[in-house]
């Protein structure tokens, strides 16, 4: 069996690659342009790296030859980056995704699992967020990710390609790169704690997220590759909980055994206030069963940063 992970050298992609190998997939290929992914994430794993860009259709088609499954995770992430530089994220997240679906169809891939985003919901009065809700993207990134899942669905209905979209809810875990201002907030919190610096919290810190541990996401993605009667559908991939940034920062200080005062800055443009997944549909159709509490995920992640950054 062969699986190709676009964005496979990223922190989620490389965790997924490890999971697939553990599940007995013989050949796992990471197709990645190393824009935000890293070769070192694949060290010692047995995952093969094919360097390439999803905007290059021929390269994508070559990489997909003989693949049973494609996991489409490659993207330019970040809500604020998509506001500052909308063109590159549009090009990669929309045109690149179109290439991925088209190449998967032409290569005869059995199923594509697409990494959609919880940002598609925007701000809603009602929590948790259910798949049947009206979407309301508040940033180019959110709109692009929503377009990607709509394309996934259309490739299923018009071209017979099996697709499943999973709306990831703020994934965190080992190997998330804290190296940019656009990095995920938990990677920045971890780095601050290890370096003894103060993180910046945008707004009052009372915004909340359904932070989802990367290993739970990897397990769910693999389940989505096999589930029955799901082609063209969209599922939440979250934990079903939510924590404010203030709560999270406090929890992390406890785990690290270190107290540091956070700086508070103005709220960030395009930010969603609260995010929390309704997991019922994913449980029903995909057998979603998260294994890690938020605190356990934080502990494991902190241990990893401590070992690799200190
Ligand atoms: C959004 C999506 C998420 C997606 C991610 C990709 C939502 C609800 N979630 O994450 O599914 O995977 O984009 O990039 O839309 N923050 C700080 N200080 C910092 C950095 C961030 O306070 O230094 C705050 C942000 O303002 C935000 C929260 O932390 O309120 C989370 O930010 P971030 O980690 O960037 O992710 P989202 O934008 O929520």
What would your notes on this structure say?
The protein has 310 residues and is of the alpha/beta class. It has a domain at 2-172 and 213-240 and 277-291: Rossmann fold (3-Layer(aba) Sandwich), CATH 3.40.50.720. The chain has helices at residues 11-22, 57-64, 79-84, 86-107, 140-159, 185-195, 214-224, 245-256, 280-286, 294-309, and strands spanning 2-6, 27-32, 48-51, 69-72, 111-117, 162-168, 171-172, 200-202, 208-209, 212-213, 233-237, 243-244, 263-265. A seven-stranded parallel sheet has the order 3-2-1-4-5-6-11, with helices on both faces. A two-stranded parallel ribbon has the order 7-10. A two-stranded parallel ribbon has the order 8-13. Strand 1 (2-6), helix 1 and strand 2 (27-32) form a beta-alpha-beta unit. The longest helix is centred in the first third of the chain and has 22 residues, at 86-107. The site of uridine-diphosphate-N-acetylglucosamine has 23 residues, from helix 6 and strand 8.
Bound molecules: uridine-diphosphate-N-acetylglucosamine
Helix content percent band: 40-55%
Enumerate how many helices there are, as a single number: 10
Order of helix and strand elements from N to C terminus: EHEEHEHHEHEEHEEEHEEHEHH
Kindly name the structural category: alpha/beta
Strand content: 15-25%
Shape: globular
Average per-residue pLDDT, rounded, comes to 97
Q: Enumerate the strands of the largest sheet in spatial order, edge to edge or round the barrel.
A: 3-2-1-4-5-6-11
Q: Report the C-alpha radius of gyration, rounded.
A: 18 Å
Any idea of the CATH class of the domain at 2-172 and 213-240 and 277-291? Alpha Beta
CATH topology-level fold name of the domain at 2-172 and 213-240 and 277-291:
Rossmann fold
Biggest beta sheet summary: 7 strands, parallel
**What is the distance, rounded to the nearest whole angstrom, between the alpha carbons of the first and last residues?**
39 Å
Low-confidence stretches: none
Number of strands: 13
Give the CATH H-level superfamily of the domain at 2-172 and 213-240 and 277-291.
NAD(P)-binding Rossmann-like Domain
CATH architecture of the domain at 2-172 and 213-240 and 277-291: 3-Layer(aba) Sandwich
């Amino acid at each position: 069996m062969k699986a190709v992970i676009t964005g496979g050298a990223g922190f989620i992609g490389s965790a997924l690659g490890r999971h697939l190998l553990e599940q007995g997939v013989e050949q796992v290929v990471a197709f990645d342009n190393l824009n935000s992914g890293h070769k070192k994430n694949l060290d010692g794993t047995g995952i093969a790296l094919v360097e390439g860009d999803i905007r290059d259709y021929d390269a994508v088609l070559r990489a997909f030859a003989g693949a049973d499954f494609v996991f489409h995770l490659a993207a330019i992430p970040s809500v604020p980056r998509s506001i500052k530089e909308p063109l590159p994220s549009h090009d990669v997240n929309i045109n690149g995704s179109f290439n991925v679906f088209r190449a998967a169809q032409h290569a005869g891939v059995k199923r594509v699992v697409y990494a959609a985003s919880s940002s598609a919901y925007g701000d809603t009065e009602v929590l948790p967020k259910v798949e049947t809700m009206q979407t309301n993207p508040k940033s180019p990134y959110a709109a692009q990710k929503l377009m990607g899942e709509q394309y996934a669905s259309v490739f299923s209905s018009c071209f017979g390609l099996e697709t499943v979209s999973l709306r990831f809810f703020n994934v965190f875990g080992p190997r998330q790169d804290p190296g940019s201002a656009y990095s995920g907030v938990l990677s920045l919190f971890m780095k601050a704690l290890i370096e003894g610096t103060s993180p910046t919290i945008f707004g009052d810190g009372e915004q909340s997220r359904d932070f989802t541990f990367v290993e739970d996401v990897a397990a769910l993605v693999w389940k989505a590759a096999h589930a029955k009667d799901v082609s063209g559908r969209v599922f939440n991939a979250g934990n079903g909980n939510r924590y404010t940034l203030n709560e999270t920062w406090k929890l992390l200080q406890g785990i690290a055994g270190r107290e540091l005062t956070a700086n508070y800055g103005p709220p960030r443009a395009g930010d969603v206030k609260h995010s929390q997944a309704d997991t019922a549909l994913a449980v029903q159709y995909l057998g979603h069963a998260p294994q890690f509490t938020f605190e356990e995920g934080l502990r494991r992640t902190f241990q990893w940063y401590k070992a690799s950054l200190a």
